[in-house]
Amino acid sequence: MNNKLIALVFVFVLIGSFVVAEIELTIPFNQEFDLKRPCFNNETFCSAAAVCNVTIIYPDGSILTNNQQMTNQNSFHNVTLTNFNISQLGIMPTIVVCDDPGGAVNASGKDTFEIEVTGDGFKPNVFPIEFSIFILGFILIATGKFKEDLGFFVTFGGMILMVIGVVTLYPGYSGLNYSTLQGQVVGIGGAGVGFYFMIERFFSRDKQVDHFDQEDDGRFHDND
């Protein structure tokens, strides 16, 4: 049992070791997203002649859009990113450059910002709520291991870990899902540990003996 508890502590420390930073814009992984940016010239909206181009760089340094022209919607310009474009978790540096030759002032400008892609599209937290659910599963398992009469806690805790492990893989949350090594480790590790403890109680030798003794009506014992 000590080895099992050590393994639980190791997984808990691993899950709690990921920290994220503040980002201006957060979008969901593998889902279509319409990027909109306002355009101003001399404190008014840009004219219909304004042209804005956007360059977006993937977290791994490759190019998502290379100076791609955005659609002029008068008060803003937009470009639609398909679900196939949003294929990497992490921070994407973005630059929008605009020229407005038809405005009150012939001007140009740029907007530099960062987009972060997360599994669920929500702004990352230093300690996501999913980690709290992981901890709950570990606590239930540990309680069931120390208190024999609460053995069903082990099964219930295992179910929790397995479900959250699967959710970690897909769709994911914060900077974790199946597309990252950390997401694979946490997701597969959590689901695997959860599955083990969920079925371990049913295949335990001691539990099988207890079950056999309860079902035995004396036919398998010699009467002296």
Automatic annotation (TrEMBL):
**Name assigned to this protein:** Uncharacterized protein
Q: Which UniProt keywords apply?
A: Membrane, Transmembrane, Transmembrane helix
TM region(s), chain numbering? 126-143, 150-169, 181-199
